[in-house]
Amino acid sequence: MKARNIQLERFINDEGIYTNAQMNGALLKKYVKITPSGEQLLEAAMEKFQLSARAYDRIRKLSRTIADLEASSTIKEQHISEAIQYRNLDRSTWGQFKN
């Protein structure tokens, strides 16, 4: 609930935006502040896993949420690392489950 409240407060002046997942490019630039070590990790992951620009933005949004869960205004290396792990878990199981 605390993370959700942080997001509601963050987007109070951004009409129609209530969560980090809804951020567009301009809002990502405004609200996603990553430490230099976090940026280096993200760049390395982009290269190693050959991630798309869309995946890059999704990792940034998710890392913003992970940082919110810790009430951190800055996205740190550990937030980026956790978001990358979730992304890789998603990729490794893509298409393996059938209904």
What is this structure, in a nutshell?
The protein is mainly α. The protein is built from 5 helices and no strands. Helix 3 runs parallel beside helix 5 and helix 4 packs across helix 5.
Overview of the molecule:
With 99 residues, this protein is mostly helical. The chain has one domain: Helicase, Ruva Protein, domain 3, CATH 1.10.8. Helix content is 65%, strand content 0%. It contains 5 helices and no strands. The longest helix has 17 residues, at 53-69.
Sequence-ordered SSE layout with sheet pairings:
Elements: H1 2-10, H2 25-31, H3 36-49, H4 53-69, H5 77-93
| Tally of helical runs | 5
Distance between the termini: 32 Å
Helical content stands at 55-70%
Structural class: mainly alpha
Average pLDDT figure: 91
Helix and strand element order? HHHHH
* Beta strands, count: 0
Going by CATH, the architecture would be: Orthogonal Bundle
Which sheet architecture does the biggest sheet show?
A: none
Q: Which parts are unreliable, with pLDDT below 50 for 5 consecutive residues or more?
A: none
Shape: globular
Report the radius of gyration as a whole number of Å. 14 Å
Instruction: Predict the CATH topology.
Output: Helicase, Ruva Protein, domain 3
The number of distinct structural domains comes to 1
- DSSP strand (E) fraction? under 5%
CATH class (first level) name: Mainly Alpha
